[in-house]
Design goal:
By secondary structure, the protein is α/β, with parallel strands linked by helices. It has 11 helices and 11 strands.
Length: about 300
């Protein structure tokens, strides 16, 4: 199937009150896990590449995603996650991405609007849609580092004003989630009233960053196999399933895949310390990620929507 712009997928999700997963990839095995699961589940999907992924895999990684994505039979969008600059977004457009994110949420409102408008003009000229962000999520992801005390929740009036002036197609909002796995103890508070109010003011698809569930059983398995990830928590499934009925259409998931991949690799090497065939090490990790992705798609309500 031909790769499609992100809005083609997300507008349907917003209208249908379900979510679509944006799953980050860094290599072939993760890409296979994402796209094979989407095809099997008949779910639309967004394959996200961060600037860190591009530094690691280069254009070759993009080509892998594009070729594999065009071979499945469900809608697929290739998305630049947390583009840090106009130039980064232009590079992604030249590489054939069908969705880009410009993240100037750390700047003042006027700068964020101006830089987003520049990206929107370039992307829309070639039929590609744009994600922007206002508010700040705590935690760490690639070049994004925000201390908890500096996290700022998105204001509904600001969201309405920003979307009207920037021309962006979908909006990442700060509603209590945070990037990464080490999010402290206890269940994070998700401000559902804020989601509802923002969604009432704008009809654009909303995006939930930092949405990984960080499954306790996978963290426990990782630690039993030699890992040292402590006090890791994620977003509760009830909060995610509720949010997709309130206007959240795109749900980012990266940490859960990393945990599943690493836990399974550690388990294989622990059980078979003499193993050196990458296929027998990475193959089980790919299957582990597929199970996580399928579970996430079921949670989002996207299974059978393609």
């Amino acid at each position: 199937m031909t790769l499609v712009p992100g809005l083609d997928i997300l507008a349907l999700a917003r209208a249908g009150r379900y979510g679509v997963g944006a799953f980050n990839t860094n290599n072939m095995e993760t890409t296979q896990a994402i796209l094979e699961t989407a095809d099997e589940a008949r779910s639309p999907v967004i394959v996200a590449l961060s600037e860190g992924a591009l530094s690691y895999g280069g254009k070759q990684l993009v080509d892998i995603v594009k070729v594999m994505g065009s071979e499945v039979t469900v809608p697929v969008s290739v998305h630049l996650d947390h583009g840090s600059s106009y130039e980064s977004c232009l590079r992604a457009l030249r590489h054939g991405f069908t969705s880009v994110m410009i993240d100037k949420s750390h700047e003042d409102e006027e700068t964020n609007i101006a830089e987003t408008r520049r990206v929107v003009a370039a992307a829309h000229a070639v039929g590609i849609t744009v994600e922007a962000e206002i508010g700040r999520l705590g935690g760490i992801e690639e070049h994004v580092v925000v201390a908890e005390e500096e996290a700022i929740l998105t204001k509904p009036d600001e969201a309405e004003r920003f979307m009207a002036r920037s021309g962006a197609d979908y909006l990442a909002v700060a509603i209590g989630t945070s990037h990464g796995a080490n999010k402290g103890k206890g269940r994070p508070f998700i401000d559902h009233d804020r989601i509802v109010e923002i969604a009432a003011r704008i009809d654009h698809p909303l995006v939930m960053h930092g949405a990984s569930g960080v499954p306790r059983e996978i963290v426990a398995r990782l630690n039993r196999a030699g890992g040292t990830l402590k006090d890791a928590t994620g977003i509760h499934e009830d909060d995610v399933s509720r949010a997709v009925t309130e206007g959240i259409a795109k749900i980012n998931t990266d940490t859960d895949l990393r945990l599943a991949f690493t836990a399974r690799v550690r388990e294989v090497l622990s059980a078979k310390p003499g193993e050196f065939d990458p296929r027998k090490i990475l193959g089980p990790a790919r299957e582990e990620m597929k199970a996580v992705i399928r579970s996430r798609m079921e949670l989002f309500g996207s299974v059978g929507k393609a």
